[in-house]
Amino acid sequence: IQFMRLKSSAVAVYGAAFAGTLAWALADVGFDFWPLVSRLMLPTGLMVLALLAWPSLRKREARTTAAREAYLLAAVLALGMGATFVQMFAPHPTVAFQGAPAPLVPVAPGQEQKNWSHYGNTAGGSRFAALDQITRDNVEGLKVAWTFHTGDTPISPTGNGAEDQETPLQVGDRIFLCTPHNNVIAVDADSGKKIWEHAINAQAQVWNRCRGLAYFDATQPLAQPTLAGATPVAAATLAAGANCQRRLLMNTIDARLVAIDADSGALCQGFGKDGVVDLKAGLGSADDPKYQLTSAPTLAGTTVVVGGRVADNVQTDMPGGVLRGFDVITGEMRWA
Predict the structure, then answer these.
(1) C-alpha separations of 57 from 15, 87, 336 in Å
(2) I need a surface site. Which of 10, 138, 249, 303 has the fewest CB within 10 A?
(3) pTM
(4) pLDDT digits over 114-172, tens only?
(5) Residue 60 lies in a domain
(6) Does a structural domain hold residue 112?
(7) Residue 83 placed within a domain
């Protein structure tokens, strides 16, 4: 009100409120950077504006302007805001590190990790690789070995959310990746050259992205769970010499589960119908964009577990957010 009346006392009143806000913020969060920014940045900016206006308000009241003091304090606060803005681009951990860094532990010979064959590295999703050649001491010296362009530009002219968000798989000397429109590509890990590509070019109204793939090798023995009471892994047999001994599995944005031969890039003919399972089957009205899949399937033993995204606020009889398990070899549904 005093500001509206053009009274210089408004600056004093706001200054007292600002001082109280400063004391409260420090008592509330201490010197944690981001909490302080959210509590003090706007009040400080308003305090600067009030100080800049103070000499003019005092002059209007025929009082000494105190301009030098007002401008000096405003400059100090403005410099503080500028320094804070610069610090926004520096890391400020929620919990600051204390103590000494843990020592680097070398990987025992024979236990070095060879592949990244699951979305989260291991079937349990460890997300960390058992390798010790790259460390925090030498990572800054790494150089780009090669760059690969998929040709599927994640542009979104209609706002359909086309983005490249995938986590590639690495098995042996090959890297397997998928593009926003579900094109699958095998790349030589050493040279970065394309080995094969299977173009699907799936389309959807929204959420055009493929976040990852699943990989299954039928030539390797099945690992059974060791936890007491765990369900044994169901057998899945594939005739010797049949295609897709090693296969990639992918959910598509238009609600299909696709199996692709990891060696050749061809569809696995014995899986579903010519390598494809329609994930809309049994869901009722599930046309695009009511039901979609963007994440990688989860491989649990020989069962491919599939979830999905169900749109909100579209209609009352939306398809259910069903979880389903499919046979990794035949594509037959095992449970839902």
Answers:
(1) 15, 34, 73
(2) 138
(3) 0.73
(4) 999 999 998 888 888 888 899 888 999 999 999 999 999 877 666 667 888 999 999 99
(5) yes
(6) no
(7) yes
